[in-house]
Each structure stands twice: as C-alpha cells, then as structure tokens.
Amino acid sequence: MRELAPDQRNYFYVLEATRVGIHKSILAALYEVHHAPRLPDGEYGLGIAPANRIPLSQLDTFPEQVQYAANTIRSLTDELITQGWDGNALWSSQHNRYSDAFLQRITEGYRPSSNDADAGLLESCDYRSLHTAYLEDMQVDFEGTQLPQNLAFLDRALLDLI
Description:
The protein is mainly alpha-helical. The protein is 52% helix and 5% strand. A hairpin with a 4-residue loop joins strand 2 (91-92) and strand 3 (97-98). The protein starts with 5 loop residues before the first helix and ends with a helix. Residues 144-149 have low confidence and may be disordered.
C-alpha cells in the first residue's frame, strides 16, 4: 500500500483527538517528528510502541497508531493532572494551544502505568522539532478560515448564555 494523503491522515487525527478530548495538532506533530515505525500498511507511525498488554499486532496500521497515540496523550495528561498540573500548566489560553511545558513533557516520552491497557509507549523526541511541527499544523488548520485563532472570548458569551 501507499502512504495516505495528508487530508486522509488528518481525518484520523480529528477522529481520534475528538474521541479522547485532546488537541488534534499534537497527533499530526507526532507523525511528523517520529515518522516511525515503518508500518506494514505502507505508512509511518507516531512513535508508539507496545506497552503492557498491547501486542505489536495492534499497532501495525496507521489508524491504530493514531488511536493509541491519542490514548497515550490522554493518559499522560490525566497522569499530570493527578500529579498536580493545572489547566494553565497544560494549556496556554494566550496562544490557544498546549503549553510549552506540556510539549516539553511530551518530548520526554511516556511509559504508561502497568494497569493502563489503552496507552502505548511514547518514544522521546526533539522539543524544537515537535514544537515547530505542532505550530505548523495549527497554522494549516487556520489558513483560509475566517475563524479567529483565539476563541477565549467565547467563554464569557457561553457563561452569559447559560
């Protein structure tokens, strides 16, 4: 098989990011930075390897790599919240994206706890590369749209509506 087109990959990123409640652009950035492992379906993975009870056979297609990458970022986020990270440590409302501290933490890699059967092992990567790829994907999403990049003003409007 051939590599997927960017819009086909984006479909999987949006689907999985929405399912677990993470920012889609981090999945695209992981793909760009890791571009590994090479998968039997002709694609590349997002730097996710087997962990705990996840066999390699569950990570050998692009959709599975995206699914487990999303699960892994969600698990990492949940673990950091348990450790005391607050919303401001995870998300930069000024820039409407993940915080630099959270991106740095992602680049360190992640090994899920032994009772987490849904998350894989996230390989470490270069911070600058991940940061650049993350911002570039966000820019692509905002190009050609009329939406403002920072939607924080909606918080007050939604509270007023409620």
